[in-house]
Amino acid sequence: MAAVILEARGLTKTFGGLRAVDGVDFDLRRGEIHALIGPNGAGKTTFVSLLCGRIAPSSGTIRFEGRDITRLPAHARVRLGIAYTFQITSIFPRLTAFENVAIAAQRLGSRGCEARARAVLERVGIAAEAGARAGDLSYGHQRLVEIAMGLALEPRLLILDEPTQGLANAEVDRFAALIEGLAGGATILLIEHNMDLVMRLAERITVLDGGTKLAEGAPEAIRADPAVRAAYLGG
Ligand SMILES: Nc1ncnc2c1ncn2[C@@H]1O[C@H](COP(=O)(O)OP(=O)(O)OP(=O)(O)O)[C@@H](O)[C@H]1O
């Protein structure tokens, strides 16, 4: 199996005159936990939206498992094993937490989907709230429902956009343990502002700034990089 699971080349997205993502070359290694960081407006959400097919690139290519997926719609990418959760919650508030996750699990086929839904709710730590209406859960627990929905797809690549936003400290710890438990199986691409968490979880980090790649490397190298410190880590 190839070491690289996803490869972007010259990936660009313009909004009018703004180059939100500007000619980015990017490789994800199979099984790694990779963090994407950068200041607000750096292009992180736009970049992962291009990878999962929520928006189409202005130019550039994306390959997944060696296959060109640049023009593939989002649902077809989900079928190939790319799952994602975004900052804006996508749960159905009137359905229970369990129903939300079961709907996601069903995309892999209806056989066993209820058992799979229960298992992932257990895994993210909210099994006790399976029967609660999702809209009544705390914001943090709604995020965990979303992560459960992503995991229910048994993805090969899981993209998480600020998954710990709104989580309490104990929930952040549980989330970190969950991601560590997935390591080696699924490949994980994580947009995260909590630098302690990034340094704990990520094997490699890519720093975006102004739509371009400012730096990429292991956490220690990124922490020490003068350009990164100037642009992002506050000198
Ligand atoms: N649909 C859109 N139309 C116009 N401009 C957009 C659109 N989406 C994003 N942008 C702009 O593209 C730039 C990159 O935005 P993006 O949300 O990708 O950054 P980000 O790094 O994810 O920021 P944050 O950390 O604040 O979430 C910003 O200047 C933003 O205003």
Order of helices and strands: EEEHEEHEHHHEHEHEEHH
What is the third-level CATH name, the topology of the domain at 1-74 and 195-235? Rossmann fold
Q: What general outline do the C-alpha atoms trace?
A: globular
Count of helices?
Answer: 9
Order of strands side by side in the largest beta sheet?
6-7-8-3-9-10
Radius of gyration: 17 Å
CATH C-level class of the domain at 1-74 and 195-235 is Alpha Beta
| Mean pLDDT rating | 91
Unique ligands: adenosine-5'-triphosphate
Proportion of residues in helical segments:
25-40%
Topology, number of strands: 10
End-to-end distance, in Å?
Answer: 41 Å
Query: So, the CATH homologous superfamily of the domain at 1-74 and 195-235?
Result: P-loop containing nucleotide triphosphate hydrolases
Domain ABC transporter: 6-235
Keywords: ATP-binding, Nucleotide-binding, Transport
InterPro entries: AAA+_ATPase, ABC_AA/LPS_Transport, ABC_transporter-like_ATP-bd, BCA_ABC_TP_C, P-loop_NTPase
Organism: Amaricoccus solimangrovi
